[in-house]
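Minutes, structural biology subgroup

Action item carried over from last meeting: produce the structure token record for Glycine cleavage system transcription activator (Reinekea blandensis MED297). EB confirmed the sequence was re-checked against the source entry. Recorded below for completeness.
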Amino acid sequence: MAQGPSLKALQAFRVAGETQSFKQAAERLFVSQAAISQQIKTLEAYLGVRLFHRRTREVALTPEGQQLYLAVQQGFDQIDRGVRVLMSDSHPSRLNISTTPSFASRWLVPRLGTLQALSPELTINVSLSQSLVTFDDSSVDVAIRFGTGQYPELESVKLFDEVLVPVCHPSLLNRSASVSAQVSAMPLLMDEAPDMLTAWARLSDAAGLNLDPASSKFTVTDANMLVEAVLAGQGLSLLPFGLIHPLIERQQLVCPLPVWVKSTFDYYLVAPAASFKRQKVKMLNSFLQTAFEETQARWNAFERDVAGRSRG
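Output recorded by EB:
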């Protein structure tokens, strides 16, 4: 199939035909008058007809130009309608969020009351999934995912740089004995996420201990189950700080070692680019950014506290 005229040339022709002026078309499209003239000449050469009568201070459409102008105008109007349909929100008062079970229960749900108070007109629905939704229909507006931020054909906004912290139940530690020896003897509770094997290796190197994840007899697919297992005193696990800092602050969990590792994955707000233009998604993004600033402040305080205790 032969390649047609460029969209840029057709846009230049459309505006020039509307204004009857190459100069005004150039001003409206933020290009030079020479660029508009060249686009029109290219289009005329492709079609083999003259589209404008050139006069001293103005131009006028020829009969062929008038015919093309009507067709091009209809085409651009149809494009504009299609774009508006894609960007429109059929349910502006309903916000559908997809996220993982662990993030929903440990981070998002405790903050939903604040989110609802900011936008009382919204009905907020949270759906749970370990995998990213496809956005093929309108059932989900936006997703909050734990990953690398690389999602084909989707836009992502980073929310938080996550850190993995080794934690156990306080009852497993005897502070009068060697902490390193006790930690080395603890059962390891594992998450099946693809980055966790390397995370444990990095933690072992940082701590100077042999923490072999291959020895683990407990493996799950969701961090929420790991949290419950650690709270039950079943062993040592490596968990995202963003999900467990309230438990650490309430001393329900402790970090027995003054080491941690940067997570390979971080939290992202993910959606088609058009969705980020919707007011309710803008509001959610703003809320999440502010809330994660608080989580970051909690991390900074935790890091200072552990560093101070290790020096003492």
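Discussion: The mean pLDDT is 89.
Next step: EB to file the record with the rest of the batch.
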